């Protein structure tokens, strides 16, 4: 006759198995790393926005120059460093963006 309950045995196995704890530690480490990346990206975004506001308040016409220049720089970087990337191809060909449901749209359709 068994005197121990199987639930206590299962809890003991759960607590003493180092592989389970190692897996949990890896998950927690990556969760902490992800949180730090999010915090860093948020900080960078706030710094960039502060610089943009300062530049705009100093020179009202600066967004008129900065926006096309940065767009050209991003397109050049994507074409130079990721020429066959699916993301780069789809990001810059947004004319027919959206799912193709067979309907004719706008000027890029041939025929009627």
Question: Would you give an account of this structure?
Answer:
The chain has helices spanning 6-16, 18-58, 62-81, 86-91. It has 2 domains: 1-58; 60-91. The radius of gyration is 27 Å and the shape is elongated. The termini are far apart. The chain contains 4 helices and no strands. With 112 residues, the chain is mainly alpha-helical.
Q: Layout of helices and strands, plus pairs?
A:
Blueprint: H1 6-16, H2 18-58, H3 62-81, H4 86-91
Spatial gap, N to C terminus = 84 Å
Percent strand: under 5%
Low-confidence stretches: none
Shape: elongated
Portion of residues in helices? 55-70%
Main β sheet profile: none
The assigned structural class equals mainly alpha
Strand/helix succession: HHHH
How large is the radius of gyration? 27 Å
**Average pLDDT across residues?**
80
Secondary structure: number of strands: 0
């Amino acid at each position: 006759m068994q005197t121990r309950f199987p639930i206590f045995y299962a809890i003991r196995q759960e607590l003493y198995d180092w592989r389970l704890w190692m897996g949990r530690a890896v998950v927690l480490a990556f969760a902490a790393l992800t949180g730090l990346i999010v915090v860093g990206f948020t900080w960078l975004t706030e710094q960039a926005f502060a610089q943009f506001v300062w530049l705009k308040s100093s020179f009202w016409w600066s967004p008129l120059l900065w926006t096309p220049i940065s767009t050209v720089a991003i397109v050049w970087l994507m074409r130079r460093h990721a020429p066959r990337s699916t993301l780069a191809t789809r990001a810059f060909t947004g004319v027919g963006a959206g799912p193709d449901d067979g309907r004719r749209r706008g000027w890029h359709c041939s025929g009627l």
